[in-house]
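A.,

Following up on our hallway conversation. Structure tokens first:
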């Protein structure tokens, strides 16, 4: 039985399958059969959901001339976030957010759990990688002037994303509950307390009261593994929707070139 097939996506001809020449047997190789089955499954889902149009709208986009490696920094940041989310789920399977057990559970992950040290290391170093990438991506969009009309809202969403990434770093730092993380977080909460107007309320909120204790740790854990990741994931969704809707900005040197030509034409 021939499986239903999806309509061809609007990709350049050279990437599309060439038709079988007339007279040649329509025999499928094992790989082609796997491909057909995949396409058949996708068509089955599409027939019931009409999702293919949305997927094509998101992924088969024209990009401006001059698009280069700097444009991959946003996706790299997203990859870092996904890696943090996956490694975080595995760490949460063994971590206990209690002042008497947190340090011991983190030690147990590193010393006893299969691949525990590796996953914990990925999560720890991955957090720095994400912060570095988000800054590089921000710098790329800034220096390419991508924050200007009509992409201001995407820039604002980006600013919220960068703040949420800092919140992840701050709340995650306390979780091993060793001397360094304990005292560093006390310093951070006190610094927050010196902020104008909202400062004292913010530090009280972070501590979960006037004192630093068991509530602080469970509060930081809940913020770190539930609240902020969900917010980041939702905002990345909105950010990417706007990227797909508005398209990406051409590099400034090409735009300058075009402006120059336009000016010449006008004279
Ligand atoms: C979790 C953090 C973030 C993720 C996953 C992310 C992801 C992306 C992706 C995949 C793109 C399209 C490709 C590219 O230009 O690299 C993009 C574009 C953009 N991002 Fe981000 N981004 C993040 C944070 C930020 C931040 C912090 C800012 C700025 C404050 C920002 C501002 C923008 C802007 C203005 C664009 C449009 C670029 C253009 O039109 O050329 N993003 N982002």
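Then the amino acids I'd put at each of the 267 positions:
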């Amino acid at each position: 039985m021939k499986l239903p097939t999806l309509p061809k996506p609007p990709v350049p001809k050279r990437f599309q399958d060439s038709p079988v020449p007339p007279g040649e047997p329509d025999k499928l190789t094992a790989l082609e059969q796997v491909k057909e089955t995949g396409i058949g499954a996708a068509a089955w889902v599409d027939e019931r959901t009409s999702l293919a149009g949305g997927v094509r709208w998101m992924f088969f986009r024209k990009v401006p001339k001059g698009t280069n490696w700097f444009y991959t920094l946003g996706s790299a940041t997203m990859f870092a976030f996904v890696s943090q989310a996956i490694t975080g789920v595995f760490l949460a399977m063994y971590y206990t957010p209690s002042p008497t057990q947190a340090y011991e559970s983190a030690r147990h992950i590193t010393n006893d759990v299969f691949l525990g040290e590796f996953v914990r290391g990925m999560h720890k170093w991955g957090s720095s990688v994400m912060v570095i990438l988000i800054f590089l991506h921000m710098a790329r969009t800034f220096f390419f002037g991508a924050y200007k009309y009509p992409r201001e809202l995407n820039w604002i969403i980006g600013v919220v994303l960068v703040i949420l990434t800092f919140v992840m770093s701050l709340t995650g730092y306390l979780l091993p509950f060793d001397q360094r993380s304990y005292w560093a977080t006390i310093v951070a909460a006190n610094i927050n307390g010196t902020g104008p107007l909202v400062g004292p309320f913010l530090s009280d909120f972070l501590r979960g009261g006037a004192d630093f204790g068991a509530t602080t740790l469970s509060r930081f854990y809940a913020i770190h593994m539930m609240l902020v990741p969900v917010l980041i994931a939702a905002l990345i969704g909105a950010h990417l929707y706007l990227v797909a809707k508005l398209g990406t900005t051409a590099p400034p040197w090409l735009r300058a070139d075009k402006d120059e030509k336009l000016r010449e034409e006008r004279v």
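Residues 71, 73-75, 77-78, 81, 134, 137-138, 141, 144, 146-147, 151, 154-155, 158-159, 161-162, 232, 236, 239, 243, 248-249 surround protoporphyrin IX containing FE (CB under 6 Å). Curious whether your intuition agrees with the design.

B.
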